[in-house]
Amino acid sequence: MPTSEDFAAIWLTLKLATIVTFLLLLIGAPLAWWLARTHSWIKGPLGAVVALPLVLPPTVLGFYLLLTMGPHGPLGRLTAFLGVAPLPFTFAGLVVASLFYSLPFVVQPIQNAFEAMGDRPLEAAATLRASPLDAFFTVALPLARPGLVTAAILGFAHTVGEFGVVLMIGGAIPDKTRVVSVLIYDQVESMNYERAHWLAGGMLLFSFCVLLALYGRRRNGRNG
Amino acid sequence: MADGAIAARFRLAYPGFALDVDLELPGRGVTALFGPSGSGKSTALRCMAGLARAPDGLLKIGGDVWQDEAHGVFVPTHRRALGMVFQDASLFSHLTVKGNLDYGMTRARVTAADAGREALCEMLDIAALAERWPDTLSGGERQRVAIARALLTRPQLLLMDEPLASLDVARRLDVLPYLERLRDELDIPIIYVSHAPEEVTRIADEAVVLDRGRVVARGAPLDVLPSASRLVEGGRFGVVNALKARVVAVDDAYGVTRLAHPAGEILIAARLATQREARVVMRATDVALAMSEPRDTSVRTILRGRIEKIDATESALAFVTLTLIGGDRLVSAITRLALDELRLTVGADVFALVKSVALDERGL
């Protein structure tokens, strides 16, 4: 049976994924909008940076994030300047790391949705007196809704499933940074296979359901 | 510049394309920008809308300056009092018809009463569609909603970018009569981009012909289109005449309708409602010419007139413009060979022969 330790890890994981997904939609939608619309030379490099977490080993990302957040890194100096605790091995640190790690999973579906709709709906909106900002909220976002839903699902699921970056940035502090994937690792390390099964099986089921929802949605209706 | 008139000057170059137009357009009526694809007509329209920006462009409408780069003026599209109808209607698929109609109206701060919303929706036959979603509408309905949506902002200028081009022939005939009604009832200028001579002759008061980014001809559609129609594929079939004639009688036994015109009787192969006046649309390619009145022919519609102008193209075709008795003009497309063999010259009296079966109620 799952223990209170397991439930704590599950709760922490869900909390992390929810916060990260929410923040990523806030950051990702404007970023995706900009990437979809700009003709600037910086589009290529920035798009590549956003996509880096797709191909980098989490250890590389975790290593550099650790340095950035550390006492001599820019983020570390900022936290010191603001008089708050350094980010490594805290929940806030996990949130920051997850933002980077899950960014492409959120930005890319939204960017695809924006690119697929083309310029025409926005041009039509402009000829109907909608300012660019107005058109973004009343035309572009509603039309990109399927992309936004996909982005939210992928961002959430991917954050739930992360391991390497979390381990490097957060360690495994119960109730603070020990998420489900890390707890499974700990259990396996200490040969508690039966305890690991509960969580690993749960993760498997969760991931399957998420993907089923995602692909089922895609097949059933293009309008989402 | 006359009241409400438009002055537009755009020079714009992309690789492989250059636009260079300097136009003074009337402050009312329909002006068509006609030309083949790549002639720059749509780009010129986009410049007027502010969706494209010519680096040293100028655009004045009535007393307003929308673009004057020499003085650093460029009013963004959403601050221009214009309405635009795109080729693909571009209705917002996440809003109902009502939502689409409201979108521009509320932003332009126009009330339904001021916009004459009810009457407009009646006129365009879309009043019953309010709660429908755009993807459940036919192409013709979508385009009519798009027209209403644009007009409800009470624009100073209506821009139409090939509004019928994405529709099939039947749907086009669905929308065309509404456009003709709009032209007669609106008191704002309409700029109508098209590569279809038939639409231009039926809708426009004036045609500006563009080719490779430049204005090559300008005038009344029937004056400029005969020679300009060679610019577009199949253009000769699009040169159409529209004559007003009075319905005299419907012959029920034969299913034909007789109409009176000063130049002769017009017979139409359809039963028309006995309305007082009808517009008869006849293609220039359906009009033959004869030097004397033929007696033994199946052609039932023979109109008398005098040759006013001859446009011989470099191809096989020649367009002959007649002034009919009563003053109407009629264009006939014949071969250059026939032109020479009949020795047709300006000033000659001729008979125009129109096959009745080529005429039906489509154009009425």
Description:
The complex is a heterodimer of chains A (224) and B (364). Chain A contains 11 helices and no strands. Chain A has 224 residues and is an all-alpha fold. In chain A, helix 1 packs parallel to helix 5 (91-117), helix 1 (4-37) packs antiparallel against helix 8 (145-160) and helix 5 packs antiparallel against helix 8 (145-160). The longest helix of chain A is centred in the first third of the chain and has 34 residues, at 4-37. The radius of gyration of chain A is 20 Å and the shape is globular. Chain B has 364 residues and is of the alpha+beta class. The longest helix of chain B is centred in the middle third of the chain and has 17 residues, at 169-185. In chain B, the strands form 4 sheets. A 6-stranded mixed beta sheet of chain B has the order 7-8-9-3-10-11, sandwiched between helices. Chain B has a 5-stranded antiparallel beta sheet with strand order 2-1-4-5-6, with helices on one face. In chain B, strand 8, helix 6 (169-185) and strand 9 (190-194) form a beta-alpha-beta unit. Chain B is globular, with a radius of gyration of 22 Å. Chain B has 2 domains: 6-237, Rossmann fold (3-Layer(aba) Sandwich), CATH 3.40.50.300; 241-363, OB fold (Dihydrolipoamide Acetyltransferase, E2P), CATH 2.40.50.100.
Can you describe this structure in just a few lines?
The complex is a heterodimer of chains A (224) and B (364). In chain A, 79% of the residues lie in helices and 0% in strands. Chain A is built from eleven helices and no strands.
Number of strands of chain A: 0
Tally of domains of chain B: 2
Summed up, the helix count of chain B is 9
- Helix content estimate of chain A: over 70%
CATH topology of the largest domain in chain B: Rossmann fold
The top level CATH class name of the domain at 16-38 and 50-178 in chain A: Mainly Alpha
Largest sheet of chain A: none
Q: How large is the share of residues in beta strands of chain A?
A: under 5%
The averaged pLDDT of chain A comes out at 90
